[in-house]
Design goal:
With 84 residues, this protein is mainly beta. It has one helix at 73-83; strands at 2-6, 16-29, 37-47, 53-58, 64-66, 69-70. A 6-stranded antiparallel sheet has the order 1-2-3-4-5-6, with no helix packed on it. The longest helix has 11 residues, at 73-83. The mean pLDDT is 90.
Length: 84
């Protein structure tokens, strides 16, 4: 459980302020020493500026689901394009 916030003063709109609650303990696979992968668990994440709450689940194959929808490479690329 906790709060995580970040602001990019050079790029307004590229920050976040989140509160998260661990609903199911996170399970991490660190068999690849170069990158750990979360392979289990579930969080409730609330965007503090809007109050919107999301269910974030981690699957045993390393996928991340937000409200049941897979977080894809295209989603990551969109963030990089807008805030990278």
């Amino acid at each position: 459980n906790g709060r995580l916030a970040y602001a990019d003063l050079d790029k307004p709109g590229c920050g976040f302020d989140l509160t998260f609650v661990t609903e199911e303990s996170l399970l991490v696979d660190d068999s690849d020493s170069d990158s750990e992968t979360t392979v289990g668990g579930r969080l409730t994440v609330t965007a503090n500026n809007s109050g919107v709450t999301y269910d974030v689940a981690f699957t045993n194959v390393g996928d991340i689901l937000v409200d049941g929808q897979e977080l894809t490479d295209a989603h990551h690329q969109e963030v990089r394009n807008n805030c990278g």
